[in-house]
Write a structure and sequence with these properties.
mainly alpha
């Protein structure tokens, strides 16, 4: 138990340090940028496009950063902007489906998935979900309150105040990150040491059947659901090799996981943004389940048609 706590704490601190090297400079940069003519110009340029998703022009910044880097970087950019609750929720939903594209898509390709499938699914879900939420939800127009950040509108008068205000935002962003990541790493370490990942695999067997996959896909799903695509890459690659997962099951598993992976971490890290995270989790799970079952059913029909054609030709 002591070793688990020690290793988990060390892992949490190391992860926080690694991620803070991303979130701190980006939060600082975007916050400073907010007080220059660059951001208003960029906002005006992009606003017509972002309006389709119910977002203001400046919301494009965390969206782009989160897709090219990771969720933490995207959140760092969100913390520096004055957005409504609805905008933050839409951004969180879009980034839940589509983030860290370069790394996670590379992981998917290494495991054996086709890159274009991953990109189409992730970007398609991000765009379509934002449009639906924007059309359905007519509330959330109040300004979002970001955890520890000041609720008062502070307008710095000079560059010294701008830098000081931006440093404060960046430090608070890292602090919030640490309060979530360190406990999370502790839990994951205990799960590993107690061998509960294997238990989760057994529990997942009925779920994989429901989703149209064989039981040997369970470990891949468990790794992706609990640790994520990037962090769980090693576990997933090994599971695919050892369990002889078929290309069909691999494709279905990744379609599910790109829609919904790292469910604990990717849900908890949005709490400091002041948005309801339970609906976010429910939407991700529902979309992942429905999409995977639909594609599995279509795949099954195609296989049945192919088999009938083959039997017809043989006769």
């Amino acid at each position: 138990m002591k070793n688990s706590f020690k290793n988990g704490l060390q892992s949490g601190i190391q992860t926080t340090w690694t991620l803070s090297k991303v979130i701190f400079p980006i939060t600082l940069f975007v916050s400073v940028l907010q007080h220059t003519p660059v951001l208003p110009w960029l906002t005006k340029l992009i606003t017509p496009i972002m309006g389709i998703f119910g977002l203001s022009g400046e919301a494009a910044i965390p969206l782009v950063i989160g897709n090219f880097l990771n969720l933490y970087a995207g959140i760092g950019a969100i913390l520096s902007l004055d957005l409504t609750v609805k905008e933050v929720f839409i951004l969180a939903l879009m980034l839940s489906f589509s983030h860290n594209l370069l790394i996670e898509s590379s992981v998917a390709a290494k495991v054996g998935m086709k890159l274009w499938i991953i990109l189409i699914v992730r970007l398609g879900l991000a765009f379509s979900s934002a449009i639906v939420v924007n059309l359905v939800w007519h509330g959330g127009n109040e300004l979002a309150q970001y955890g520890f950040t000041s609720k008062q509108n502070v307008t710095p008068d000079n560059w010294l105040e701008i830098i000081g205000f931006s440093l404060q935002k960046a430090c608070l962003g890292v602090l919030q990150l640490a309060l979530i990541v360190i406990p999370l790493m502790l839990v994951i370490q205990f799960l590993k040491d107690l061998g509960l990942l294997k238990t989760f695999t057994r529990w997942m067997a009925p779920v994989t059947k429901m989703l149209g996959m064989k039981e040997n896909t369970s470990m891949t799903l468990v790794a992706g659901l609990t640790i994520g695509l990037a962090f769980g890459a090693g576990v997933m690659i090994q599971a695919v090799k050892e369990d002889n997962v078929s290309y069909k099951d691999l494709t279905l598993a990744f379609i599910f996981l790109v829609s919904c992976h790292a469910v604990v971490e990717d849900t908890l890290i949005f709490i400091p943004l002041g948005i309801p995270v339970l609906p976010l989790l429910i939407i991700r799970l529902a979309v992942a389940i429905v999409l995977t079952m639909i594609i599995a059913a279509i795949w099954r029909k195609v296989e049945e048609v192919s088999l009938r054609k083959e039997s017809t030709y043989e006769n």
